[in-house]
Design goal:
This protein is α+β, with helices and mostly antiparallel strands. It has a single domain, classed as Amidase signature (AS) domain (Amidase signature (AS) enzymes), CATH 3.90.1300. It has 14 helices and 15 strands. Strands 8-10-9-14-15-13-11-12 form an eight-stranded mixed sheet, with helices on both faces. The radius of gyration is 21 Å and the shape is globular. Pfam families: Amidase (PF01425). This is Indoleacetamide hydrolase.
């Protein structure tokens, strides 16, 4: 295999080359490392490099799995024993994990060669990846723009073809936002589909779930087959799939009832090119034989207010535990100004406030469940403005008051599906005139990733994106 061809393969394809002995895992790792050396100085996506870890994995023999020999990145929020794991925070810049998360272990069991960590904003808190510790991760399509967040390093690395698939996680849109900003595919699974232990039973009150971003739909589906399922500490489980997710890709989705909107859930105007792209995709879906109508779910409560309380409270606990570990109060020398402000604001909340936020999330979930009685799929823009410019969301600003209004304009529609636990995906279906990707978000009923994979496979055939490459690309 000519290494020029590496970027033409998805992860399933690379694994097949390894199985046929057309290429070795070490050759694939060497290519991923070479691409990192060439491209990462431009995009800053791979912030922790532990090539020796992957080399040791290969030397001792990789497990026989669906991705044996494929290079892989963990997001820098996930513990991997013996490797540096910082959560994007200065206070943890030298922390070395002493165990594997359940998800990391399942990635290892799938045969992946984990050669580093992808960039995340501090503690995964922002929809852009610009930590003080590592600096900004840049969008391969335009280096002045963000690759999204919080899985911005993963999405940038996949878009640039450093590798075809990478770990990502989503507590308020953090798989879908960077997938949209970087022009790759990203599926947020149903709540509890994939494990989050052993250190916690759920993330951010059940909002957070881990999976991947990928070049192809089938990579995402095959990966979900490899890693899904409960663990001993799971407080609840997702509905079992009807068949392997890999068998959904390429399967006829049938004639679906698809509702769509080109508006923000708050009623605010969105970028006109994005609104036009939504309508164009709705027309494409109608042409594929689906029943398409303009219809949007009502907001039963304010998702921004609910997520602010729940994520802020979780951030407050994170900092309290760190203060206990280090035996001192944390300052802006340790964590970013926004992180500290969120933790301090959480101390002003009462238990009643937290339960009130949980109730608001349930009200949103209930309204969505009712809405989906009348449709199979809901289409909306993943982002309501183009990817933000580097520096627009400044977590070290003296004035943090501009962040919330910008987030309301930028990502008003993603977090509601974290609250409901429903699966939702971002599909790279459009680009604006400036050449930036515009991802479209599709959501389905609880437990119905299979339906989304069927539709994604159809869209991948109808409007392929894999061969569309950004300027910063291997």
């Amino acid at each position: 295999m000519s290494f020029k061809e590496y970027g033409n393969y998805d992860a399933v394809g690379l694994a097949e080359l390894v199985r046929k002995k057309d290429v070795t895992p070490k050759e694939l790792l060497d290519e991923a490392v070479a691409r990192t050396a060439k491209l990462d100085p431009q995009i800053n996506a791979v912030v922790v490099k532990h090539y020796d870890y992957a080399e040791r994995q290969i030397a001792k023999g990789l497990p026989d799995g669906p991705f044996t020999g494929v290079p892989f990145l963990l997001k820098d929020l996930e513990p991997l024993e013996g490797t540096r794991t910082t959560w994007g925070a200065t206070v943890l810049k030298d922390f070395v994990a002493d165990h594997n998360s359940t998800l990391a272990q399942r990635f290892l069991d799938a045969g992946l060669a984990i050669f580093g960590k992808s960039a995340s904003p501090e503690f995964g808190l922002m929809p852009t990846t610009e930590s003080r510790l590592f600096g900004p991760t840049r969008n391969p399509w335009n280096l002045e723009h963000s690759s999204g967040g919080s899985s911005g390093g993963a999405a940038a690395a996949v878009a640039a073809r450093i590798l075809p698939v990478a770990h990502a996680s989503d507590g308020g849109g953090s798989i879908r936002i960077p997938a949209a900003a970087s022009g790759v595919f990203g599926m947020k699974p149903t709540r509890a589909r994939n494990p989050v232990g052993p250190d916690r039973g759920e993330g951010w009150g059940g909002f957070a779930v881990g999976h991947v971003v990928s070049v192809s739909v089938r990579d995402s589906a095959v990966m979900m087959d490899a890693i899904h399922g409960p663990e001993p500490s799971s407080p609840y489980v997702a509905p079992p799939p009807e068949r392997p997710f890999s068998q959904e890709v390429g399967r006829d989705p049938g004639r679906l009832r698809i509702s769509f909107t080109d508006k923000s859930p708050y009623g605010d105007a969105i970028d006109p090119e994005i609104a036009e792209a939504v309508r164009d995709v709705a027309k494409l879906l109608a042409g594929l034989g689906h029943h398409v109508e303009e219809r949007a779910p009502p907001l039963a409560a304010d998702p921004a207010a609910a997520i602010t309380t729940i994520v802020g409270s979780n951030t407050g606990l994170t900092l309290r535990l760190l203060e206990q570990r280090f035996g001192r109060s944390l300052t802006t020398d340790d964590v970013e100004r926004l992180t500290l402000a969120m933790a301090q604001n959480s101390l002003k909340l009462t238990p009643v406030d937290y339960v009130g936020a949980q109730l608001a999330a349930f009200q949103i979930s209930r309204a969505l469940a009712t809405f989906f009685e009348g449709c199979d799929i809901f289409l909306s823009p993943t982002l309501c403005t183009p990817p933000v410019r580097i520096g627009e969301l400044n977590t070290m600003s003296e004035d943090l008051s501009q962040i919330a209004p910008l987030l309301r304009r930028y990502i008003p529609g993603t977090s509601m599906f974290n609250m409901s636990g429903q699966p939702a995906m971002s599909v790279p279906s459009a680009w604006n005139k400036a050449g930036l990707p515009l991802g479209m978000m599709f959501a389905a009923r609880f437990g119905e990733e299979g339906l989304l994979f069927r539709l994604a496979g159809q869209l991948e055939q109808a409007r392929p994106w894999k061969d569309r490459r950004p300027p910063a690309c291997g």
